[in-house]
Structures are given as C-alpha cells and as structure tokens.
Amino acid sequence: MSADAGAVDRLRREAELATHQLIESWEEINLLYSISEILGRTVKLDDAAATILHEICETVGAGLGAIYVHDDERGGLVPVATLGVEGELPGVGVDDERSIVAQVFRDRHPLIAGEAHAGAKREAAVRRGAMLAVPVLWTTPEGGVPLGVVVLSAPRSRALFTAGDQKLVAAIASQIGTAIQIDTLVKASMAQERLAHEMQMAHDLQMRLLPAPSSLLPDAECAARVEPAQHVGGDFYQLFRLGQGRVGVLIGDVSSHGYQAALIMALTMSAMAIHAQAYADPGDALAALRNSLADELRETEMFLSICYVVVDPAHGTLRYANAGHPHAFVVRVDGTVERLVATDAPLGLGTQAPAVAQVGWSRRDDLLVLFTDGISDARDDAGKVLGEARVLDVVRARRGDLPSRVVDGVFALLEGHMGGGAPADDQAIVVLRS
Question: Do 170 and 282 belong to one domain?
Fold first, then answer.
C-alpha cells in the first residue's frame, strides 16, 4: 500500500513538473509569436523596440532592460529602448574594454554576469545584480554580423538568469537582427529612391534652362542636343535673337561634370542672357561674361571653354570669339570645312580681353556646327576614340538636310560607336542654317 502511495506521489510530482515546463514553454512560444507579430506590423525598429523589450522582461522576469543598436555614424552602441532605467541611458563605445555590452558585441557570444562581475560605469543604470547580455546578429553565409545587444538585469525571482533565459533571448535577438537589417535596407532603398527623384528633377530643370531651337525662327533654322554624362552636367548651348536678322549662338563646356559644373553652366547662361543683348561685339560679350564668372571660376578652380558666334546674314558675315573651344566649324555648300579657331584661352585661365575673328557667311548655304569634346572623344568598348573627322564626315554627308537631321546623324554615329554604353563625358551639339 505504501509503495503504491509513493508511486502516486512520484507521478504527481512529475506531472506538476511537466505542467510547469509546459507552461514555461508555452510562455516562451507565445513570446516568440508575439515578437514576430510586433515586428511584422512595423517597418521601423524604433517603433517596436520598447514593446519588444517590455514583452521580454515580463516573460524572463527582469526589472531592468535595454536594447542597444550599433550606430555607424557615432561609432558606438546606442540604446533604442529601455525599461526601468532612470534618466537617459548613455551609449557605449564598441572598444570599451570594461563594458559587458561592448564585450558581448565584439565577441558575438551571450554572457550571464553575476553581481560581482565588473562592468563599465556607462551601463550602471541598466545593471542591478545579475546581468544577461545577448548579441543581436544578422546571420549571413559568412557568419553572424553584430548589429546590437539585448541587456536584461535585476532578475525578480532568482539570483541569476538561466541558460533557458539566454536561449530564449537569443532567439528573440535573432528576430531583432532581421528587423534591423530590414529597417536598414528599407531606409537605404528610400534614400536611393529620394536621391534618384532629386537627380531626375535636377536633370529636368537643367534641360529646361536650354532654349528651344525654334526660338530663332524665322531668322534661322537650328537644332541642338545635350546629353549629360551624369544626371546634370556642364555642356550647354544658348541662342539669341539680336535683331535685324542677326542671331547669336553660344556653346560652352565646363572643365568638369556633375553638380558643380551644372552650377557654373547655370550662372553662365544667366549672365550671358544679359551680356549678349548689351554688347554687339562677341569679344566684348565674352569679356563681360568672364568678369561675371571670375569669382566662381576661381573658387571652384574650374575653367570654361566657350565659343560665341554672331551670324549676320544681311551683311554676309559671321563674327566670333572663341575662348579655348576646339570644335567650332562652318561647313560650306561644297563640303569644305572651315574651323573657327580658338583665339584665346578658356575663361578662368586667361586674363586678356577675348579677340574677335570674322569669316564670310552665305545665307541658306552655309552650316554652323558647334560641338563639345564629349562627342569627338567618345570611346567604344575597346577604348577607341571616335574622333573629330568621323563627326565632320557625317555633317558633310548631311549638309543639305535640315539641321535636325544633321544632329540625328551625329548621335546615330555616337550610339553605334559606343555600343549603347553610357558616355564618359557630357555631349552637346548645335547646328544652324540662316
């Protein structure tokens, strides 16, 4: 009879133990499920960190807790959530040799520290008695990448945290690591989308600064095209109706590309819109432009090759000032090509007043062709340069066509030569017939 009673008592104790273990397991499973639900409902970890930490502390039985996340900009571990901490919890340097938080982050291994275990003063606010610190890792094929640390302290029902507590928090830390990585990727994606949008807006704005070739009608037929190497660039053109049938054509190439070049381009166009109307002589107009841009060119250490041409069909003349621009031509009706040679150094390199040269001009016959070195210097996959001669061959072959057909022919040559690759430099061309 006594043997039966002992067996029953033993079975009762085993049932109670099993029940207790099931309850604990259920609490752990329920916690993991809750954390998963919380992270699934939010994109930003900051929004969920406090709730997650509260759930962990309630289940494990911790009176203090914190979640630290590594901040690249600050170069340390920054708390994103705290529980039971009085005041603001300071960050922890990754290289702090006395810090349990920093040690766990560096070693990528959890640590259960007793009350006697030394720790840094910076984590004293989250430390009372025993401490459990678990690394937050992002698992990759190469291993775990440390992203932060979960810290618990002040165990309520016992002196130390258990291996079971450590295992549970490690499982949650893994979920947090995934959330941090997703949060990082989402932020990077949003930043990339915002940058792409801003770059496209900058490109559209710059293109709108360029005048429509039709603005010279009925004095001249004109076609032009600009293709920046990046979203914005430093190659540009400008067109002016100067009265009595005269037209002004400007092409420029800033010594770089990108945003700084685009800024110089915008300043040049703004200033030249004034100077072209104020000065009939091309040299005087470029001299005034150089003075307007002197400070910007000096501060940015840039220079500007530029050619300004004034076509006067009534008097049969083409007057120009060329400050270091190599690709400026008049193509005659018989196919002869006459170069408008550079008379001066690019703006920003020289100090003397730009000189003026003059050639003859035949209405309806001659073709003015101005382009930048991004066209002639375009390279194919093997690095072979297109060359000025091939560009002029296309122009001569189409010299009787509309200017737009000439521009189309040049860019068809470019695209064929580059094989669809992106240009290494900005490209611009203007073709005009009066």
Answer: no
